[in-house]
Design a protein that fits this description.
Radius of gyration: 16 Å
Number of strands: 8
Number of domains: 1
Shape: globular
Order of helices and strands: EEEHEHHEHEEHEH
Number of helices: 6
CATH architecture: 3-Layer(aba) Sandwich
CATH topology: Rossmann fold
């Protein structure tokens, strides 16, 4: 099988602009995945890179992109007013990816995954399924501030991947929250992992992306 390649990607004509890294598989399978990062991070997050490489090695064209708030400043979390523009940026990224792939998927880590799910709740026709890593159900130590308002409107199948020690939401809390979603869902629990999904050490760096890829492809085929 021909090796996949990575190149810088930009769509400067879009507003907000799309900027990131495109993983082009040696043998494309006509599936495309847009992946984005958590608050305070960027498209160079090691977990996103590993996932993009794993998906691309198996035929997916993958765009890991910086959200608009990150394009406008190098450091710090998104501000209170950034979310709508970040979702618009994700929609533009999907439009760019539609030129490469017929079937689209979307997801990300923490804040990026949450914005992906909110965009899909606004328009269920955008993607076939969602990959939501460490969904930030609530701020740490503030379980009453649940970020679930859009979940009853989410009609896109979604695979949630969360650590059993994630302070942003326990497995029990997430299991309860997923009952609000009318679409098909699955929760993949990573034993002993925190909000970073325990992505440390050579073994984990190899095993975790393969596990997530395997679970997501099985889940999305059953959901399509």
């Amino acid at each position: 099988m021909p090796a996949s390649s990575i190149r810088d990607f930009a769509d400067n004509a879009a507003d907000p602009k799309v900027r990131g890294y495109l993983h082009v598989p040696g043998t494309p399978n006509n599936d495309g995945l847009v992946l984005t990062h958590g608050a305070g991070s960027n498209a160079q997050a090691p977990l996103l890179i590993a996932l993009a490489e794993t998906f691309s090695a198996n035929g997916f064209t993958v765009l890991r992109c910086d959200l608009p708030y990150r394009q406008s400043r190098s450091f710090g979390p998104p501000g209170p007013g950034d979310a709508p523009r970040d979702r618009a940026g994700l929609e533009n990224a999907l439009a760019a990816m539609s030129k490469f792939s017929a079937r689209l998927f979307m997801g990300g880590h923490s804040y990026g995954g949450r914005q992906s799910s909110m965009l899909a709740a606004e328009d269920p026709t955008l993607v076939t399924a969602l990959l939501l890593l460490s969904y930030p159900l609530h701020p740490p130590r503030k379980p009453d501030q649940q970020r679930t308002q859009h979940l009853p409107d989410l009609r896109t199948p979604a695979l949630f991947v969360s650590g059993t020690r994630d302070p942003f939401g326990s497995i029990a809390e997430l299991t309860q929250a997923l009952k609000m979603i009318p679409a098909k869902t699955k929760l993949l629990a990573i034993e002993g992992a925190g909000h970073d999904l325990g992505f440390k050490g050579k073994a984990k760096q190899e095993e975790l992306p393969r596990l997530i890829f395997s679970e997501f492809t099985k889940f999305s085929e059953l959901s399509s």
